[in-house]
Amino acid sequence: MSASEGKVRREIAVTRSNGRGSAKQSPERIVEAIVAAIGEHRLAPGTKLGEEHLGEIFGVSRTIVRAALVRLANTRVVTIEPNRGAFVAQPSVREAREVFDARRVIETALIRRLAGVCDAAALAGLRRHLEQEDVARTAGDRRSAVKLSGDFHLKLAELAGNETLLELLRELVLRSSLVVMLYEYDGRTACAPDEHTRLVAAIATGDAEAAARLMAEHLDHVEAGLSLDDKGDAAVDLREVFSAFTG
Protein backbone atom coordinates (compact mmCIF):
# COMPACT_ATOMS: atom_id res chain seq x y z
CA MET A 1 0.00 0.00 0.00
CA SER A 2 5.23 3.89 0.18
CA ALA A 3 6.77 3.62 -2.80
CA SER A 4 7.64 6.50 -5.32
CA GLU A 5 8.54 8.28 -2.09
CA GLY A 6 12.30 7.97 -2.68
CA LYS A 7 12.22 10.02 -5.86
CA VAL A 8 9.93 12.63 -4.34
CA ARG A 9 12.16 12.99 -1.27
CA ARG A 10 15.15 13.69 -3.50
CA GLU A 11 13.16 16.34 -5.35
CA ILE A 12 12.16 17.92 -2.04
CA ALA A 13 15.78 18.03 -0.89
CA VAL A 14 16.79 19.89 -4.04
CA THR A 15 13.93 22.35 -3.64
CA ARG A 16 14.81 23.03 -0.02
CA SER A 17 18.44 23.65 -0.90
CA ASN A 18 17.26 26.52 -3.09
CA GLY A 19 15.49 28.22 -0.21
CA ARG A 20 13.23 27.31 2.65
CA GLY A 21 10.43 29.61 1.54
CA SER A 22 10.33 28.29 -2.00
CA ALA A 23 10.18 24.70 -0.70
CA LYS A 24 7.16 25.49 1.42
CA GLN A 25 5.39 26.98 -1.59
CA SER A 26 6.15 24.09 -3.95
CA PRO A 27 3.74 21.35 -5.05
CA GLU A 28 6.46 18.76 -4.37
CA ARG A 29 5.98 19.22 -0.64
CA ILE A 30 2.33 18.21 -0.96
CA VAL A 31 3.17 15.34 -3.30
CA GLU A 32 5.68 14.06 -0.74
CA ALA A 33 3.18 14.26 2.09
CA ILE A 34 0.43 12.43 0.19
CA VAL A 35 2.83 9.74 -1.04
CA ALA A 36 4.16 9.17 2.49
CA ALA A 37 0.67 9.10 4.01
CA ILE A 38 -0.47 6.48 1.50
CA GLY A 39 2.70 4.41 1.93
CA GLU A 40 2.21 4.35 5.70
CA HIS A 41 -1.52 3.55 5.35
CA ARG A 42 -2.57 6.85 6.93
CA LEU A 43 -4.58 8.03 3.93
CA ALA A 44 -7.26 5.62 2.79
CA PRO A 45 -8.55 5.03 -0.74
CA GLY A 46 -11.54 7.19 -1.57
CA THR A 47 -10.56 10.04 0.75
CA LYS A 48 -11.56 13.41 -0.70
CA LEU A 49 -8.62 15.76 -1.21
CA GLY A 50 -10.24 19.17 -1.21
CA GLU A 51 -8.05 21.88 -2.72
CA GLU A 52 -9.15 24.56 -0.28
CA HIS A 53 -8.75 22.31 2.76
CA LEU A 54 -5.29 21.13 1.68
CA GLY A 55 -4.30 24.71 0.93
CA GLU A 56 -5.19 25.66 4.50
CA ILE A 57 -3.31 22.70 5.95
CA PHE A 58 -0.11 23.37 3.99
CA GLY A 59 -0.41 27.16 3.85
CA VAL A 60 -0.33 27.35 0.06
CA SER A 61 -2.62 28.50 -2.74
CA ARG A 62 -5.15 26.25 -4.44
CA THR A 63 -3.04 26.55 -7.61
CA ILE A 64 -0.13 24.81 -5.90
CA VAL A 65 -2.42 22.15 -4.44
CA ARG A 66 -3.94 21.56 -7.87
CA ALA A 67 -0.49 21.12 -9.43
CA ALA A 68 0.36 18.48 -6.83
CA LEU A 69 -2.90 16.62 -7.37
CA VAL A 70 -2.45 16.61 -11.14
CA ARG A 71 1.01 15.08 -10.75
CA LEU A 72 -0.40 12.34 -8.53
CA ALA A 73 -3.28 11.76 -10.94
CA ASN A 74 -0.74 11.13 -13.70
CA THR A 75 0.54 8.14 -11.70
CA ARG A 76 -3.01 6.93 -10.89
CA VAL A 77 -2.58 7.51 -7.18
CA VAL A 78 -5.24 10.24 -7.21
CA THR A 79 -8.37 10.51 -9.34
CA ILE A 80 -9.79 13.88 -10.39
CA GLU A 81 -13.50 13.86 -11.17
CA PRO A 82 -15.23 16.76 -12.98
CA ASN A 83 -17.44 18.81 -10.66
CA ARG A 84 -16.50 16.60 -7.70
CA GLY A 85 -12.80 17.16 -7.09
CA ALA A 86 -9.83 14.95 -6.24
CA PHE A 87 -9.87 11.69 -4.32
CA VAL A 88 -7.30 9.12 -3.27
CA ALA A 89 -7.60 6.43 -5.92
CA GLN A 90 -9.69 3.32 -5.28
CA PRO A 91 -8.22 0.61 -7.52
CA SER A 92 -10.78 -1.79 -8.95
CA VAL A 93 -10.38 -5.54 -8.54
CA ARG A 94 -9.11 -5.69 -12.12
CA GLU A 95 -6.57 -2.92 -11.45
CA ALA A 96 -5.44 -4.70 -8.30
CA ARG A 97 -4.78 -7.88 -10.24
CA GLU A 98 -2.98 -5.94 -12.98
CA VAL A 99 -0.73 -4.24 -10.43
CA PHE A 100 0.39 -7.60 -9.07
CA ASP A 101 0.79 -9.05 -12.57
CA ALA A 102 3.09 -6.14 -13.44
CA ARG A 103 5.02 -6.49 -10.20
CA ARG A 104 5.62 -10.19 -10.85
CA VAL A 105 7.09 -9.43 -14.27
CA ILE A 106 9.31 -6.61 -13.03
CA GLU A 107 10.41 -7.98 -9.67
CA THR A 108 11.25 -11.48 -10.85
CA ALA A 109 13.43 -9.96 -13.57
CA LEU A 110 15.12 -7.61 -11.10
CA ILE A 111 15.83 -10.22 -8.44
CA ARG A 112 17.12 -12.66 -11.06
CA ARG A 113 19.62 -9.99 -12.09
CA LEU A 114 20.45 -9.05 -8.49
CA ALA A 115 21.27 -12.64 -7.51
CA GLY A 116 24.19 -12.54 -9.91
CA VAL A 117 25.70 -9.22 -8.82
CA CYS A 118 24.89 -8.71 -5.12
CA ASP A 119 28.08 -8.23 -3.09
CA ALA A 120 28.75 -8.65 0.63
CA ALA A 121 28.11 -5.01 1.47
CA ALA A 122 24.74 -5.05 -0.28
CA LEU A 123 23.76 -8.27 1.48
CA ALA A 124 24.69 -6.74 4.83
CA GLY A 125 22.44 -3.78 4.05
CA LEU A 126 19.55 -6.10 3.19
CA ARG A 127 20.00 -8.01 6.44
CA ARG A 128 20.02 -4.77 8.41
CA HIS A 129 16.76 -3.87 6.70
CA LEU A 130 15.26 -7.21 7.74
CA GLU A 131 16.28 -6.43 11.32
CA GLN A 132 14.48 -3.08 11.12
CA GLU A 133 11.35 -4.84 9.86
CA ASP A 134 11.56 -7.25 12.80
CA VAL A 135 11.95 -4.40 15.32
CA ALA A 136 8.90 -2.62 13.93
CA ARG A 137 6.77 -5.77 14.04
CA THR A 138 7.91 -6.66 17.55
CA ALA A 139 7.06 -3.15 18.74
CA GLY A 140 3.62 -3.39 17.15
CA ASP A 141 4.43 -0.39 14.96
CA ARG A 142 2.23 -1.35 12.01
CA ARG A 143 2.79 1.84 10.02
CA SER A 144 6.57 1.50 10.17
CA ALA A 145 6.32 -2.20 9.37
CA VAL A 146 4.17 -1.48 6.32
CA LYS A 147 6.55 1.21 5.07
CA LEU A 148 9.63 -0.97 5.63
CA SER A 149 7.97 -3.84 3.79
CA GLY A 150 7.45 -1.70 0.70
CA ASP A 151 10.93 -0.23 1.04
CA PHE A 152 12.42 -3.75 1.02
CA HIS A 153 11.10 -4.36 -2.49
CA LEU A 154 12.40 -1.00 -3.66
CA LYS A 155 15.79 -1.67 -2.09
CA LEU A 156 16.09 -4.89 -4.09
CA ALA A 157 15.26 -2.96 -7.25
CA GLU A 158 17.82 -0.25 -6.47
CA LEU A 159 20.54 -2.85 -5.95
CA ALA A 160 19.68 -4.52 -9.26
CA GLY A 161 20.71 -1.31 -11.00
CA ASN A 162 17.98 -0.77 -13.59
CA GLU A 163 16.71 2.79 -13.10
CA THR A 164 13.86 2.48 -15.59
CA LEU A 165 12.38 -0.58 -13.89
CA LEU A 166 12.96 1.02 -10.50
CA GLU A 167 10.87 4.04 -11.49
CA LEU A 168 8.06 1.78 -12.67
CA LEU A 169 8.22 -0.25 -9.47
CA ARG A 170 8.03 2.84 -7.26
CA GLU A 171 4.65 3.65 -8.79
CA LEU A 172 3.46 0.05 -8.54
CA VAL A 173 4.46 -0.31 -4.89
CA LEU A 174 2.61 2.88 -4.04
CA ARG A 175 -0.48 1.65 -5.88
CA SER A 176 -0.10 -1.66 -4.04
CA SER A 177 -0.49 0.25 -0.78
CA LEU A 178 -3.89 1.44 -1.99
CA VAL A 179 -4.83 -2.08 -3.07
CA VAL A 180 -3.84 -3.58 0.29
CA MET A 181 -5.71 -0.90 2.26
CA LEU A 182 -8.81 -1.47 0.18
CA TYR A 183 -8.86 -5.26 0.02
CA GLU A 184 -6.77 -6.69 2.87
CA TYR A 185 -8.24 -8.89 5.57
CA ASP A 186 -8.41 -7.07 8.91
CA GLY A 187 -5.15 -7.24 10.82
CA ARG A 188 -3.26 -9.02 8.06
CA THR A 189 0.20 -7.72 7.12
CA ALA A 190 1.00 -7.29 3.45
CA CYS A 191 4.28 -9.24 3.42
CA ALA A 192 5.22 -12.30 5.49
CA PRO A 193 8.59 -11.56 7.18
CA ASP A 194 9.98 -15.06 6.67
CA GLU A 195 9.47 -14.70 2.93
CA HIS A 196 11.68 -11.61 2.84
CA THR A 197 14.32 -13.59 4.75
CA ARG A 198 14.17 -16.44 2.23
CA LEU A 199 14.50 -13.99 -0.64
CA VAL A 200 17.71 -12.58 0.84
CA ALA A 201 19.05 -16.10 1.42
CA ALA A 202 18.45 -17.01 -2.23
CA ILE A 203 20.21 -13.84 -3.37
CA ALA A 204 23.15 -14.67 -1.10
CA THR A 205 23.60 -18.10 -2.72
CA GLY A 206 23.54 -16.55 -6.19
CA ASP A 207 20.71 -18.85 -7.28
CA ALA A 208 18.90 -16.55 -9.71
CA GLU A 209 16.14 -19.00 -10.64
CA ALA A 210 15.35 -19.84 -7.02
CA ALA A 211 15.26 -16.14 -6.16
CA ALA A 212 12.87 -15.42 -9.05
CA ARG A 213 10.63 -18.33 -8.07
CA LEU A 214 10.50 -17.18 -4.44
CA MET A 215 9.65 -13.63 -5.50
CA ALA A 216 6.79 -14.84 -7.69
CA GLU A 217 5.48 -17.01 -4.85
CA HIS A 218 5.81 -14.12 -2.40
CA LEU A 219 3.75 -11.79 -4.56
CA ASP A 220 1.25 -14.60 -5.16
CA HIS A 221 0.82 -14.94 -1.39
CA VAL A 222 0.27 -11.21 -0.92
CA GLU A 223 -2.34 -11.18 -3.67
CA ALA A 224 -4.01 -14.33 -2.33
CA GLY A 225 -4.37 -12.60 1.04
CA LEU A 226 -6.62 -9.92 -0.39
CA SER A 227 -10.36 -9.90 0.15
CA LEU A 228 -12.41 -8.63 -2.77
CA ASP A 229 -15.26 -7.47 -0.55
CA ASP A 230 -16.19 -3.79 -0.61
CA LYS A 231 -14.76 -2.19 2.52
CA GLY A 232 -16.90 0.92 2.31
CA ASP A 233 -15.84 4.50 3.02
CA ALA A 234 -14.33 5.72 6.28
CA ALA A 235 -14.08 9.33 7.41
CA VAL A 236 -10.54 10.72 7.42
CA ASP A 237 -9.31 13.87 9.14
CA LEU A 238 -6.85 15.38 6.64
CA ARG A 239 -5.44 17.83 9.18
CA GLU A 240 -4.50 14.94 11.47
CA VAL A 241 -3.09 12.86 8.60
CA PHE A 242 -0.74 15.64 7.47
CA SER A 243 0.16 17.07 10.90
CA ALA A 244 3.67 15.60 10.68
CA PHE A 245 4.30 17.49 7.43
CA THR A 246 2.95 20.89 8.47
CA GLY A 247 4.22 21.35 12.01
Automatic annotation (TrEMBL):
Domain annotation HTH gntR-type: ranges: 24-91
Pfam families: FCD, GntR
Coiled-coil ranges per UniProt: none
UniProt-annotated stretches for the region Disordered: 1-25
GO molecular function: DNA binding; DNA-binding transcription factor activity
UniProt protein name: GntR family transcriptional regulator
Listed Basic and acidic residues bias regions: 1-13
Superkingdom of origin: Bacteria
UniProt cross-references to SMART domains, sorted A to Z: FCD, HTH_GNTR
UniProt lineage: Bacteria, Pseudomonadati, Pseudomonadota, Gammaproteobacteria, Candidatus Competibacteraceae
Biased segments, Polar residues type: 15-25
Keywords: DNA-binding, Transcription, Transcription regulation
